[in-house]
Amino acid sequence: DVQMTQSPSNLAASPGESVSINCKASKSISKYLAWYQQKPGKANKLLIYSGSTLQSGTPSRFSGSGSGTDFTLTIRNLEPEDFGLYYCQQHNEYPFTFGSGTKLEIK
Amino acid sequence: EVQLQQSGPELQRPGASVKLSCKASGYTFTEYYMYWVKQRPKQSLELIGRIDPEDGSTDYVEKFKNKATLTADTSSNTAYMQLSSLTSEDTATYFCAKGSYGSFDYWGQGVMVTVSS
Hints:
The complex is a heterodimer of chains A (107) and B (117). The mean pLDDT of chain A is 97. Helices cover 0% and strands 50% of the residues of chain A. Chain A is built from no helices and eleven strands. In chain A, strand 9 (84-90) and strand 10 (97-98) form a beta hairpin. Chain A is mainly β and 107 residues long. Chain A has strands at 4-7, 10-13, 19-25, 33-38, 45-49, 53-54, 62-67, 70-75, 84-90, 97-98, 102-106. Chain B has no helices and eleven strands. In chain B, strands 2, 4, 5, 6, 9, 10 and 11 form a seven-stranded mixed β-sheet that branches. In chain B, strands 1-3-8-7 form a four-stranded antiparallel β-sheet, with no helix packed on it. Chain B is globular, with a radius of gyration of 13 Å. The interface between A and B is medium-sized, with 22 and 22 residues.
């Protein structure tokens, strides 16, 4: 199975700042990486798939980049509602696997 | 509007079985895989397997092959997951999620299963 290494585990930032979360695959997954947001009491939300394609409804301050084994989620101009948990997931080969998560907190 | 409505929380004894449900609406149920994902407390997400509701075919992640059984009822647009021989390791939140080319574009709200004597 493809192992996904996500970093950092924790991140603190202030509204208005920009942050980046990284995800590294144990082997090439082409462009097939998704990013999710998880918040208490809400359904998990798909933000980006295929590395850089924004899911319908995802604000443009979110962007994804990378291919092969290294990927990045960037959130520019953080809004209060952006704080929560973020997970990457490879969707290149089954079984699809997730990263360990990044907790984005308000500084 | 796509919705996945999962059944309520469960408290089960060790050794018991439990069947979770996930009722889909807002899309054609038979056209997309339904996935099940496990999340232990304070842990990451872990894929259990998937079912093709059109023909009932399933693909399980190896470690869950003797633990989970996935089924689907196309008459009620509902997916089910049965977990057997429950242990404390099965205490977790379980999500159903609609597949979309390998990513998961809609998720259920999750159901907490607690295994305790």
